[in-house]
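re: ur question from earlier - yeah i can do the single chain one, its not a big deal. heres the input i used so u can compare w yours
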Amino acid sequence: MASSVSGTEEVRVSALTPLKLVGLVCVFLALCLDVWAVLSPAWVTADDQYYLSLWVSCWKPVSSTDWSCNTTLTTDWQIATLALLLGGAALILLSFLVALVSLCVGSRSRCYKPVAIMLFAAVVFQACSLVLFPIKFIETVSLRVYHEFNWGYGLAWGATIFSFGGGILYCLNPKNYEDYY
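and the output i got, formated as tokens:
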């Protein structure tokens, strides 16, 4: 009995899944939100009399129309908040670059775990900074007017949430979800 086998066919299966593409989009959105949050002038505002960003603290006396501003990089908790937030943003940038390069080069599946680990580390850094900020602000700054945490603070939480979502999506194994593709 002779067998006529011409050779074996090689089937190349791509590890890129829609989950990973959505994860990459989440990481990109987290990076954009982080940049906007760090550059935002409005982390805390108070009735057009006070505003606080990560870089400056400004107030306007009631009898004046001019704003007086000081740097916020003089207190340890504001420096720690900024350092943790920038550390998280750096990890998000690095994970985005690794994910993007691995997508273009084709070594995708080997980079999923490091990207997820970097994203979860960024979430820890940013969550620590975002919990530290309001606690120390309320403890150290006494405002006699109504104040609120504004859109800069919210953007930083948005970046943290998108980083967490991207980390989860990079943890999912596409082999376990073949029914969805």
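The longest helix spans residues 108-140. not sure if urs matches, ping me
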